[in-house]
Design goal:
CATH topology of the largest domain: Ribosomal Protein S5, domain 2
Structural class: alpha+beta
Order of helices and strands: HEEHEEEHEHEEEHEEEEEEHEEEHEHEH
Shape: globular
Strand content: 25-35%
Number of domains: 2
Largest sheet: 6 strands, antiparallel
CATH class of the largest domain: Alpha Beta
CATH architecture of the largest domain: 2-Layer Sandwich
Distance between the termini: 70 Å
Number of strands: 20
Helix content: 25-40%
Radius of gyration: 25 Å
Length: 335
């Protein structure tokens, strides 16, 4: 009788432990290949004299994120070669809620579409000038901390009009450390004068802000349906899709081309995260060419899916040149 009671208690304890483990949310996220979507099919351009169609595909790639990983799920994930477990703070920094990160990802996606339109128009020969400079972030402890805010629009510096980042940088560099930069800021509906001391950071005069250029009404209107995909890493593929629709010929050459890369105003392609998962997603979709930031080459070349050519890109212009080139006419860049 005592033996049966002991076994019964042990069984209950085991069930309790199993349930507890299954209810425990691990401080990790599971990254897996996300969908690869044909950007060309999702891009609409209005206001252009011509919009060409293509016979191939241009795929944006994405990463699936599971932020509710339980103990036994993690064991299964570890056995899956296509899934990577990473500390949760890599995707969701401490102090930021999941909702806040998702909102930022949505904003980054919207911004990448605007930048892609600007870059594509410039590649197509149109002159596109920024209409102003906006603060994206303020570095903690920097001279601007507590004086400037994200969303502030910088309209004047030392009494001179500012419409692009380069103009502001030139004016900042005229100051010695400790000297004051007088700014005219548009904050909401109010004009606010702000004075910020200039400091030396990494050998350069700075005030400690992250900036972006903003644009007025562009000569074309672009809409890209990306559903629930967020983040800035589809910028290069957006730019290529818009450029393809604005110019003569078929940029894809009938190929299935996938890629990833965040872009800046000058078309530079910046490294991104989740490259391994994106390569897998692209190959599953049948892509044979993958355009990626040059800074992601080492990681990508360590896990290359069979049948997928990796083409490193530093600038969107390079991607266009590669896609427009005829086979055998020039060396093909590779990781």
């Amino acid at each position: 009788m005592r033996h049966r009671i002991t076994v019964g208690v042990g069984g209950v304890a085991l069930v309790a432990v199993v349930l507890a483990l299954n209810l425990y949310r691990l401080p990790v996220v599971a990254l897996s290949p996300g969908p690869a979507e044909d950007v060309l099919a999702r891009t609409k351009v209005q206001g252009s004299a011509r919009v060409d169609d293509s016979s191939g595909k241009l795929y944006l790639t994405s990463v699936g994120i599971d932020d509710d990983v339980r103990f036994f799920e993690a064991i299964l994930d570890l056995a899956n070669r296509d899934v990577q477990l990473r500390p949760r703070r890599v995707v969701y920094p401490e102090g930021q809620s999941t909702q806040r990160v998702n909102q930022q990802n949505a904003a980054d996606m919207d911004e990448s579409k605007v930048l892609a339109t600007v870059v594509a128009l410039r590649l197509a020969g149109r002159r596109i000038d920024p209409a102003g400079v906006e603060i994206v972030d303020v570095r903690p402890g920097a001279p601007a901390d507590g004086k400037l805010r994200p969303g502030d629009r910088l309209e004047r510096a030392d009494g001179r009009a500012v419409t692009n980042i380069q103009q502001l940088q030139v004016l900042i560099r005229r100051h010695r450390p400790g000297e004051v930069l007088a700014l005219g800021v548009r904050r909401g509906d109010a004009d606010v004068p702000v004075k910020v001391a200039v400091a030396i950071d990494d050998g350069q005069p700075r005030i400690g802000v992250v900036l972006r250029e903003v644009y007025g009404r562009l000569p074309i209107q672009v809409s890209i349906d990306t559903e629930n995909i967020g983040g800035p890493s589809a910028g290069m593929m957006f730019a290529l899709s818009i450029y393809d629709k604005l110019t003569q010929g078929d940029l894809t050459g009938g190929r299935r081309v996938a890629g990833t890369g965040q872009i800046t105003e000058d078309g530079s392609v910046m490294p991104i995260g989740g490259i391994v998962e994106k390569l897998i997603g692209a190959r599953r979709q049948g892509a044979t060419v993958f355009l990626l930031p040059r800074g992601n080459c080492d990681e990508a070349s360590a896990h290359p899916p069979r049948g997928l050519r990796l083409v490193p890109i530093s600038n969107v212009r390079e991607a266009v040149a590669f896609l427009e080139s005829k086979p055998g006419t020039s060396p093909v860049p590779h990781c």
